[in-house]
Amino acid sequence: MKKLLLLGLVLLLMICVVPVSALTAVDDAFYADWSGCYVPEGLPPRSIGNVLNNDIISNPGSITVEITQQPKSGGLEPYLPDVWYSLNKVDFVGTDIFYYRLYDGQSYSNIAKVTITVVPMVPDYPIRTWLYTPTDTALNSMVCSPWGYDDTIISSTVKHGTIRFLDWHHSQFEYTPDAGFTGWDTFTYVCHIDSANYGDCFGRGSEAYIYVGDGHPIPEFPTIFLPVTLIIGFLGSVFLIRRTREN
Prior knowledge:
mainly beta, Immunoglobulin-like, 15% helix, 2 domains, 247 residues
């Protein structure tokens, strides 16, 4: 019994006298929101976080960060522990991952995982807009500004009229239909944000449909879906007839 007490006393003294080195890297999760943007040459990558904020470190002054596995879709600048992240693919949206460990001059920590969720600064889905104007009447409207964009870049213009912009940053436009024209006209466009922090950001290619004439009809249903609709309707009718006979 005395030997056990003596052994316990020795262990207690060792714990109290010998310092315990706490060096633990903890997983992180950051967000980057400039996907879909063109970053001009010379614009530095964006700082998205600091990997040391949640790590357990006994002596912060001697810590260095070592990347053990680089991200696949982006790049890291040598500014660690601040994470400066840049995209290799302009249109990448999703999750990127890299791994790191800490070094205090004597020993290494465990390896931690950093997850970077890349989300688009501008919507990455097409915007479809339906507009209406009477015959022989000009239409003043906008397609990008309501969604938070700076301006509009038209990639294919209308076929039955003309379009001109009414302001210097191309947010509001005027559509003038051809004389006597009635029916649907359309143009495709891209929305743009000029960001001082992220560079030139472009949304997905979108479409605007303009109906010239009376009323507000619904755009024509794509003919490719008509056979599918008929087949679904036919099968549904057969199913209902069978259920009725069974009951």
